[in-house]
Predict the structure.
Amino acid sequence: MKLEDIVSLCKRRGFIFQGSDIYGGMAGTWDFGPLGVMLKRNLMNAWWNYFVDSRDDMYGIDAAILMNPRTWIASGHLATFADPLVECKECKSRFRADKIADGISESVTTEEFLATHAKCPVCGKESWGPIRKFNMMFSTHVGAIDDDSSVTYLRPETAQGIFTNYKNIVDTVYPSLPFGLAQQGKAFRNEISPRDFILRDRECSQMEIEYFVHPSTWEENFEKLRAMQHDFLENVIGLDSSKIHEYEVPASDRAHYSKRTIDFMFDYPGGEEELMGLAYRTDFDLANIQRESGKSMEYRDKITNETFIPHVIEPSIGVERLFLAVLSNAYTEEDIDGSKRTVLKLPENLAPYKYCVSPLLKNKPELVAKARKVYDMLRAKYTFVTWDDSGNIGKRYRKQDEIGTPKCIVIDFDTLADDTVTIRNRDTATQIRQTIANL
Ligand code: GAP
């Protein structure tokens, strides 16, 4: 399977379109169509249910995207959230240096880059300017005054909306350590080279947890959250465990706030790429917020009365990267009776539609009327049922296979006689009969 197969299926079936497609597109932005929204929401809900709703130690939050610019001074993003930018002197194309040369990291110097003898991917020349640090935050102006005093930034991570609310939560919910604050929402990064479909975007959605712990317990909590990530990825959303690899990020490549990071890598169609990160952020963020705001971020232990700034373990995952992992995990091509069938073998909890109801023949009013009754009955209770009477039944199966619908319910002439229907299984293409009452 190639990445293009998935891109093409996403467009053909209305999962994902290029952002601003009608005007020629806008690099690094993507629009989710009807099926894409359903799958994306199922993913986000599965995450929220697993990490927040079903736990006593996690609380949800939904902070504003626009934040006071002091946030980005305290967090270090204004000073350090930058990628190495290099320009070809010949054709003026600009690239992220560590993405066009092998064996160098984000902290590459001009000398190290030149020593790799990388050629320009556009014109093929080897004529480079110096490496510059390019800050990836999108700036904007707040209010009617358009000068330096009104500049702020679209958040590059949802995390800061959690850290800046830590004190509000402690003062209103009185949680006991360890506890986590979870958030889902948009994040924006002016990536130098957005690429690989939805893998590296300029606008993405993150799902993040800041898990606050006593400093002496960070290692055991790191392990606890590490195990939870595997459980979620493998058992809740069904990713193949052999495609997930942990990568211990060396100090030179870690984000400025991290003392330990494990990247969870996934075998995407184009190769292994980062799916998510698990970072030990120490008290970096809360201590900086305390300094910048002048307000205490200390936590007082309810039993021992000890006061300290909690340390933080952060699992952070991009919805789009998870979406692509789920799609590539589910995408299957099979040979059935000499013809190719494409199937999205999505787990039932993620499939946009769980059931499709159809009449065997669309030109038989009695079949259509009976099928409508079955559809209305199920639809009254469930949102995840769809109707399909287009083309012939074979084409309908192919379409439902491609969008991952686990079961097709077909109303035929026997249904009129004995109130039974055919239920066709997506993965095995086998059929059983069942009474309508038992659906
Ligand atoms: N708060 C920590 C943080 O933001 P990160 O490693 O920069 O850490 C976390 O990002 C996750 O967010 C990544 O593992 C990835 O899943 C997702 N992500 C980051 N940048 C992205 C981008 N440009 N496009 C799509 N997803 C992205």
User: Anything to note?
Assistant: The longest strand covers residues 271-282.
